[in-house]
């Protein structure tokens, strides 16, 4: 039995460019700007959670997460543009290789607003 996963959503994945310091050494700063490579990935995006603090604060962030299924790996350092939001990959991507069927990847996207 083959299970097909429908991938109706299109994500833009931004692969960061590692910045170098004045001595040409790589630094931990990653650049996601216009020179960073981008690719489009087919995916299935499903809502997961949304949280906000119960206490009134000066800055009250809303953190939203989505579960993503795709056939292409997206790494933890990459950023994803979906539905007008720039999201971070929350944790490592899980690779699923069923005995029969297609290899797919599962990951969680996280967006912080506010």
Describe the protein's architecture and organization.
The protein has 114 residues and is mostly beta strands. It has a single domain (9-113), classed as Beta Barrel (Thrombin, subunit H), CATH 2.40.10.370. 0% of the residues lie in helices and 54% in strands. It contains no helices and nine strands. The protein has a six-stranded antiparallel barrel. It has a two-stranded antiparallel ribbon with strand order 2-3. The mean pLDDT is 88.
Outline of this structure?
This protein has strands spanning 9-14, 17-20, 26-31, 38-51, 62-70, 79-82, 85-89, 94-96, 104-113. The protein has 114 residues and is mostly beta strands.
Number of helices: 0
Largest beta-sheet characterization = 6 strands, antiparallel, barrel
Helix content: under 10%
Uncertain stretches of 5 or more adjacent residues: none
Q: What's the overall average pLDDT, rounded?
A: 88
Give me the secondary-structure topology.
Elements: E1 9-14, E2 17-20, E3 26-31, E4 38-51, E5 62-70, E6 79-82, E7 85-89, E8 94-96, E9 104-113
Antiparallel strand pairs: 1-4, 1-6, 2-3, 4-5, 5-9, 6-7, 7-9, 8-9
Descriptive key words:
two-stranded antiparallel sheet, 9 strands, 114 residues, 54% strand, Thrombin, subunit H, mainly beta, globular, single chain
């Amino acid at each position: 039995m083959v299970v097909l996963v429908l991938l109706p959503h299109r994500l833009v994945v931004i692969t960061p460019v590692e910045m170098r310091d004045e001595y040409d050494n790589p630094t931990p700063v990653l650049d996601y700007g216009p020179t960073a490579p981008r690719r489009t990935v087919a995916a299935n995006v499903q809502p997961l959670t949304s949280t906000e603090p119960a206490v009134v604060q000066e800055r009250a962030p809303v953190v939203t997460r989505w579960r993503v299924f795709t056939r292409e790996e997206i790494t933890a350092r990459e950023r994803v543009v979906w539905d007008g939001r720039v999201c971070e990959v929350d944790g490592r991507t899980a690779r699923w290789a069923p005995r029969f069927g297609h290899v797919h990847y599962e990951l969680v996207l996280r967006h912080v607003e506010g």
